[in-house]
Write the structure tokens for this entry.
Amino acid sequence: MERLYLPQLASGAVAQGATIALDEGQAHYLVRVLRLRKGDRLRAFDGVAREYAAVLADDRPRRVTLEIGVVAREEAPPAFRAVLAQGLAKQDKLDVVIQKAVELGVARVRPFVSRRAVLRLDAAETERRLDRWRKVAAEACRQCGRIRLAELDAPVSFETLLDSALADGPLLLAYEGRDAEPLTAFAASPGARTATLVVGPEGGFAPEEAQTARERGARLVSLGPRILRTETAGPAFLAIVQYLWGDLATGRPATGEEER
Ligand code: SAM
């Protein structure tokens, strides 16, 4: 069943039978890309908690509308909120990290700038990338069957990240250096309902940065005996933690068929 992200639905309960006008991008996707026609059925999700049965009510140019039906699925907030803090990386590596992280159930992605980050963004470029990252996250959400969008923050400094993430809960910093703990040290449930997983940029963390993080209460965690690329480390770390504490080990069918 084709799915469409309709932020217009997020305002609250939508009356059954309501007709929603689609914007140009949404209309293009349904009529041109998916080649749906009037009367075709699909699902529309609000990005927060609900997915609705829907029917393409009108497929004429500039008049494309959906008729909204019953709430077909609801998604509760995750019992464990995995947050991935990713050092700013070159080219479109963050697009790949965000896409994989959404598929793995990340709740929030927090890009950050650390000492060895090669990429430096001015305000305009930051806005442009944020817009693109949010589109990548919404598309990954549509593809993998999620209803709740992942939150995407604007990049912050490493120091800002440390302060705010540690205030929220445990901070696990992926560190390939000598002092890192093995992941087996984290096999038991953290007790906390959230944790921030931190992955450095291509150049890694400066030793002082890892030291500062540890002094402020972060745990340095080894991801094994090989050096992972920054775009490998984030998804790998997230998959492990989601298996240990999140929903990857629940065995629930991927169709997300928690039909009402
Ligand atoms: N120091 C690395 C090197 O010598 O090439 C550069 C950093 S690595 C490409 C990018 C990031 O991935 C690191 O900052 C770290 O967060 C994470 N990472 C990569 N391999 C890891 C490992 N074996 N254990 C823990 N973290 C790792």
